[in-house]
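User: I'll paste a sequence; please echo it back and then give the predicted structure.

Assistant: Echoing your sequence first, then the prediction.
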Amino acid sequence: MATTKQRQAARKNVQKAQQGARRKKSISNMPASTRTALGKQGAAVAQRKRTGSSSPKTRQELYEEAKRRNIQGRSKMGRDELARALGHG
């Protein structure tokens, strides 16, 4: 059984964690241009998924293909670098 002091400390820790999570909100702290670009990128990915595009377009999809082909340095590559390394353009 926890003491009153322990319960108070636990409650305080939970409240601190909740406040930290509310303050974090990383996307809302980004510049408007970055938020817009992220939104457009997400919309493009969603559109590709809806149309059933077979060619890999997202970084994650490109990374998985690079992993299958055993391309060196793939974990440090960005989307464009992965696409070039795979010959997608």
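The chain has a mean pLDDT of 84. The chain is about 65% helix and 0% strand.
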